Amino acid sequence: MEPSTAQGTSVAPVPWQRLGQELRQRDGRWRARCALQLAAFAGATAAFTAVAYRVRHRPRDIAFLAVTYWLVALLLCLVEKLEALRLDASPPARETELRRVRLGVWAVAVTLGNTVAWRVCDAMPFLALKLGVWGVTLVVLGFAYYFVFRSKAGECHAEEHGHPSS
Known about the structure:
Blueprint: H1 15-54, H2 59-87, H3 91-123, H4 127-150
Helix pairs in contact: 1-2, 2-3, 3-4
């Protein structure tokens, strides 16, 4: 039987009805997010494929592209896992896994940054430009360290960002 409005008062929906509404809202956002991620992945794959075709006769460049592509894909997967763990509602079980995923994100970010900086430095003609590239790399990795480990984003509540509580 449906909730009625007997004598002018409305009856609040039962918990499973609210849960169904939240899941439908989340499902729509999830689909839009998946479509956006799929489009970004397809665009990145097309760009990497085009560059790989242009440098197909240089094995060193092919190796650089393959490693960079793999590291970018791994970094995106780890960031997605980090976000899912951050929104998880079971704090005791997630702390150790959250720490491991953060360390993984940091390790992959450092590896990717150093790989790209090393490759860009090979193309630089002067020592000052090479030092500039390494300086920018250190600044970017410093920001990454801050946002992965020192930022208070992991301590915020899901309700503050419009996510329903579990």
